[in-house]
Design a protein that fits this description.
single chain, 258 residues, 11 helices, binds hexanoyl-coenzyme A, lipid metabolism, Enoyl-CoA_hydra/iso
């Protein structure tokens, strides 16, 4: 498959998707979002890929949905298309763990795409925000929901209602990003994390990610019950036996991904 607005490459068991629309600071038009969704789904279905890394360019991860493409849409159109199309939500539904490496602007839909990933690693130049209110609209790809779950009501309200940007340090303090690294080291550091995840047993990492995500969907009791049953299910895998045997015999596990 050839893509125009993203780059797709594989490094060991990591599938790397790079947003590549530099003239528009990676503004997310329909084509870019479709390409991102297709390529992400292909990696998700590939048993040789243990982690997906989504990244952009130095100046911008993505400066939001494409305002030029959006500006003349009517209410009838957005309702009929159910705009934000399902393409946008693909990243949030993948089973393979997804890491976002964010440098520069992650605004509006760009911040929302980063938040659909399982964890965000930020370069120290990163700037996050939901500036839609300045355009006379509101976030439409999960911003009001995922940002609020990540940073709590007070800061989410402030960011969504003022449209101001938050730098990488503040985003880390607020719990939006897992770690901040010097911008120059972002790709190397993000690849280290993605590589570490890809080095685990994929079916176990899939179970682990699903269990963490359940925390955002349900009550504590139900979440703990889900976790326990999922924990039990790891005992049906080859790799659970292998991991514990390897520990006891002081050797590296040889994951079979089953
Ligand atoms: C379309 C965009 C764009 C966007 C930047 N560009 N962001 N085009 N949609 N979201 C284009 C500019 O028009 C310009 O193209 C080129 O990229 C470079 O941008 P500049 O503005 O010249 O760069 P700079 O002065 O460095 O400012 C960077 C910036 C600013 C602060 C990020 O571009 C900006 O405020 N962008 C919009 C951010 C935003 O409001 N995002 C939310 C979008 S709404 P030309 O051709 O003019 O040189 C949204 C809704 C999500 O995301 C809902 C779900 C879809």
């Amino acid at each position: 498959m050839t893509y125009e607005l993203i780059q797709v490459e594989t490094q060991d068991r990591v599938g790397v998707l790079t947003l590549n629309r530099p003239d528009a600071l990676n503004a997310l038009n329909a084509q870019l979002v479709r390409e991102l969704g297709e390529a992400a789904q292909a990696f998700d279905q590939d048993p040789e890929i243990g982690c997906i890394l989504v990244t952009g360019m130095e100046k911008a991860f993505a400066a939001g949905a494409d305002i030029k493409e959006m500006k003349d849409k009517t209410y009838e159109q957005v309702f009929a298309e159910d705009f934000i199309t399902d393409d946008w939500e693909v990243l949030a539904k993948l089973r393979t763990p997804v890491v976002a490496a964010v440098s520069g602007f992650a605004l509006g839909g760009g911040c929302e795409v980063a938040m659909m990933c399982d964890l965000i690693i930020a370069g120290d130049s990163a700037k996050f925000g939901q500036p839609e209110i300045k355009l006379g609209t509101i976030p439409g790809a999960g911003g009001t929901q995922r940002l609020t779950r990540a940073v709590g009501k007070a800061k989410a309200m402030e960011l969504c209602l003022t449209g101001r940007m938050m730098d990488a340090e503040e985003a880390e303090r607020a719990g939006l990003v897992a770690k901040v690294v010097p911008a120059a080291d972002l790709q190397t550091e993000a690849m280290k994390t993605a590589g570490a995840i890809a080095g685990m047993s994929l079916p176990i990492a899939q179970r682990c990610k699903e269990a963490v995500n359940i925390a955002f969907e349900t009550t504590l009791n139900e979440g703990v019950r889900f976790e326990r049953r999922t924990f039990h299910s790891t005992f049906a895998t080859h790799d659970r036996s292998e991991g514990m045997d390897a520990f006891v015999n002081k050797r590296k596990p040889d994951w079979q991904h089953r």
